[in-house]
Amino acid sequence: MKEAELRGLRSRSFIAVLAGIVSLVSPNGVAADSVRKLSGAQIRATLSGKEVTDEVHYRDVYERDGTFRSYSMGSKRGGRWSIQGDDLCIDLPEPDGGCFEVTVAGDHVVLTPKGLGTPSDGIVRAISDPK
Prior knowledge:
Helix content: 10-25%
Distance between the termini: 72 Å
Number of strands: 9
Strand content: 35-45%
Shape: globular
Number of helices: 2
């Protein structure tokens, strides 16, 4: 094999290995095989009495009594949250309310709207301002 062919083979092998590694890791650095969709009971256990936040732009509070508080970019909104089947449903004025599929990996959670909209993600932690 010529030197140039050998370099090309090494380069393609490196790219294939790198692509394989990248496919096993999600964008937030969590192994893709640890990501799982939550059932309704698991959503309740994960979010009840907790908050989800990106630690900069927003914080959503899920009180145990179903009260929902959202703080985003200086504004506060309130509503209710509930579980319908295996979905998290948030009762807020349009366009922010709706139902979401919830996936989790460690303390990271992703809420994917059942209709139009983009997924949101954050970490689950204790409520920072409990009532």
